[in-house]
């Protein structure tokens, strides 16, 4: 690791069970009780679970039916995104009092580069502690934090002493920390990848570190290089205040399975409308349309089409989505449909191309 990388001071702040904690904050009767934010219908999905619910195995993205089965006393609360955004803005205002290098990952977590900070405080550990205390005092909510030399280690560390805790991994502790880490704790290693690593005899960071680059690339493709470097404490990604989205999408899960393509087209029309609204709000357009189909047996299928011009208009999005829908026969009834747009006009080369091409100007609408 170079001295430049060693000298960075990165904090990852992660709110504790954010949506659920906000609901418990606003409704004291819910405090100490297992709650799930999301729909309680048979098609509902848990968006967030309180720590009381997590003890029963309830997790985000779990179907409401399974969640209720795991925790019969579970209380469902409807999502209130406006309220979550309101508090998220409060929290971000606190972040910006310490540094302008803030990279939000979502409403409830962000990276902060405090190598050079507005408070002139040389201790990232003390800054993280102060920020967490400020969040508690000003919002009534707790946050956890990880502090280290790069984003990867900071994010892993923030999960170490949850809830309402923090962990610092100093430069001289990085390699030992990573070597002793359970492979499941590595950010970027999901359940499927972890199982694959287990079969290859990789259970800890030390096991991962013992495998050469060629071995990792053979078994994990381009991610092999990522694993090779992060286990050695190398992660050069900077904290980027303005994260550029790689795709914008919208999707819907239906109360009843759809077995007719006529009904699917009707739903796709609404989804394309919502996607258009999001694109125009962000002043973004893209070339690649992807249709996402989840069948009633939970099989997931995606189909993509890349155009020669940028689009953001509902009618053009829907036209491409229809073509993708009819590309293959339906294997089963459908429980979810989604449309996303990628290959966006958010990098300079694409913006230049957009301004120089007449067909792009005709298709690009805000």
Automatic annotation (TrEMBL):
<keyword id="KW-0963">Cytoplasm</keyword>
<keyword id="KW-0227">DNA damage</keyword>
<feature type="domain" description="UmuC">
    <location>
        <begin position="10"/>
        <end position="190"/>
    </location>
</feature>
<dbReference type="InterPro" id="IPR036775">
    <property type="entry name" value="DNA_pol_Y-fam_lit_finger_sf"/>
</dbReference>
<keyword id="KW-0239">DNA-directed DNA polymerase</keyword>
<comment type="similarity">
    <text>Belongs to the DNA polymerase type-Y family.</text>
</comment>
<dbReference type="InterPro" id="IPR043128">
    <property type="entry name" value="Rev_trsase/Diguanyl_cyclase"/>
</dbReference>
<dbReference type="GO" id="GO:0003887">
    <property type="term" value="F:DNA-directed DNA polymerase activity"/>
</dbReference>
<dbReference type="InterPro" id="IPR043502">
    <property type="entry name" value="DNA/RNA_pol_sf"/>
</dbReference>
<comment type="subunit">
    <text>Monomer.</text>
</comment>
<keyword id="KW-0548">Nucleotidyltransferase</keyword>
<dbReference type="GO" id="GO:0006261">
    <property type="term" value="P:DNA-templated DNA replication"/>
</dbReference>
<dbReference type="InterPro" id="IPR001126">
    <property type="entry name" value="UmuC"/>
</dbReference>
<keyword id="KW-0515">Mutator protein</keyword>
<keyword id="KW-0235">DNA replication</keyword>
<dbReference type="GO" id="GO:0042276">
    <property type="term" value="P:error-prone translesion synthesis"/>
</dbReference>
<protein>
    <recommendedName>
        <fullName>DNA polymerase IV</fullName>
        <ecNumber>2.7.7.7</ecNumber>
    </recommendedName>
</protein>
<feature type="binding site">
    <location>
        <position position="108"/>
    </location>
    <ligand>
        <name>Mg(2+)</name>
    </ligand>
</feature>
<dbReference type="GO" id="GO:0003684">
    <property type="term" value="F:damaged DNA binding"/>
</dbReference>
<keyword id="KW-0460">Magnesium</keyword>
<feature type="binding site">
    <location>
        <position position="14"/>
    </location>
    <ligand>
        <name>Mg(2+)</name>
    </ligand>
</feature>
<dbReference type="Pfam" id="PF11798">
    <property type="entry name" value="IMS_HHH"/>
</dbReference>
<keyword id="KW-0234">DNA repair</keyword>
<keyword id="KW-0238">DNA-binding</keyword>
<dbReference type="InterPro" id="IPR017961">
    <property type="entry name" value="DNA_pol_Y-fam_little_finger"/>
</dbReference>
<dbReference type="GO" id="GO:0006281">
    <property type="term" value="P:DNA repair"/>
</dbReference>
<dbReference type="InterPro" id="IPR024728">
    <property type="entry name" value="PolY_HhH_motif"/>
</dbReference>
<keyword id="KW-0479">Metal-binding</keyword>
<keyword id="KW-0808">Transferase</keyword>
<dbReference type="InterPro" id="IPR022880">
    <property type="entry name" value="DNApol_IV"/>
</dbReference>
<dbReference type="GO" id="GO:0000287">
    <property type="term" value="F:magnesium ion binding"/>
</dbReference>
<dbReference type="Pfam" id="PF11799">
    <property type="entry name" value="IMS_C"/>
</dbReference>
<dbReference type="GO" id="GO:0009432">
    <property type="term" value="P:SOS response"/>
</dbReference>
<dbReference type="GO" id="GO:0005829">
    <property type="term" value="C:cytosol"/>
</dbReference>
<comment type="function">
    <text>Poorly processive, error-prone DNA polymerase involved in untargeted mutagenesis. Copies undamaged DNA at stalled replication forks, which arise in vivo from mismatched or misaligned primer ends. These misaligned primers can be extended by PolIV. Exhibits no 3'-5' exonuclease (proofreading) activity. May be involved in translesional synthesis, in conjunction with the beta clamp from PolIII.</text>
</comment>
<feature type="site" description="Substrate discrimination">
    <location>
        <position position="19"/>
    </location>
</feature>
<dbReference type="Pfam" id="PF00817">
    <property type="entry name" value="IMS"/>
</dbReference>
<feature type="active site">
    <location>
        <position position="109"/>
    </location>
</feature>
<dbReference type="InterPro" id="IPR050116">
    <property type="entry name" value="DNA_polymerase-Y"/>
</dbReference>
């Amino acid at each position: 690791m170079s001295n430049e990388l060693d000298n960075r001071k990165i904090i990852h702040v992660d709110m504790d069970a954010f949506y659920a904690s906000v609901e418990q904050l606003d409704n004291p009767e819910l405090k100490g009780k297992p709650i799930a934010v999301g729909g309680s219908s048979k098609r509902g999905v848990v968006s967030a679970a309180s720590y009381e619910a997590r003890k029963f195995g309830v997790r985000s993205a779990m179907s409401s039916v399974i969640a209720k089965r795991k925790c019969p006393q579970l209380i469902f609360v409807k999502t209130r995104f406006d309220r979550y955004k309101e508090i998220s803005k409060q929290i971000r205002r606190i972040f910006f009092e310490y540094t302008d290098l803030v990279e939000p990952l979502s409403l409830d977590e962000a990276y902060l580069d405090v190598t050079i900070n507005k408070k002139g405080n040389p201790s990232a550990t003390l800054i993280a502690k102060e920020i967490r205390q400020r969040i508690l005092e000003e919002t009534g909510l707790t946050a956890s934090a990880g502090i280290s030399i790069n984003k990867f280690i900071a994010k892993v560390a923030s999960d170490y002493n949850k809830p309402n805790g923090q962990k610092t991994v100093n430069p001289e502790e990085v390699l030992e920390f990573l070597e002793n880490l359970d492979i499941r704790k590595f950010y970027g290693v999901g359940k499927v990848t972890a199982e694959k690593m287990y079969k290859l005899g990789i259970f800890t960071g030390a096991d991962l570190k013992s495998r050469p680059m060629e071995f990792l690339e053979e078994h994990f493709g381009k991610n092999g290089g990522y694993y090779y470097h992060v286990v050695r404490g190398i992660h050069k990604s900077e904290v980027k205040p303005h994260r550029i989205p790689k795709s914008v999408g919208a999707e819907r899960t239906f109360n009843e399975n759809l077995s007719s393509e006529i009904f699917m087209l009707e739903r796709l029309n609404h989804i394309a409308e919502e996607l258009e609204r999001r694109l125009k709000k962000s002043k973004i357009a893209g070339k690649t349309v992807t249709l996402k189909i989840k069948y009633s047996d939970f099989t997931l299928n995606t189909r993509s089409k890349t155009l020669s011009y940028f689009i953001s208009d509902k009618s053009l999005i829907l036209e491409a989505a229809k073509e993708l829908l009819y590309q293959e026969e339906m294997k089963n009834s459908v429980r979810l449909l989604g449309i996303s747009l990628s290959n966006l006009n958010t990098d300079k080369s694409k913006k230049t191309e957009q301004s120089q091409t007449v067909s792009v100007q005709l298709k690009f609408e805000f």
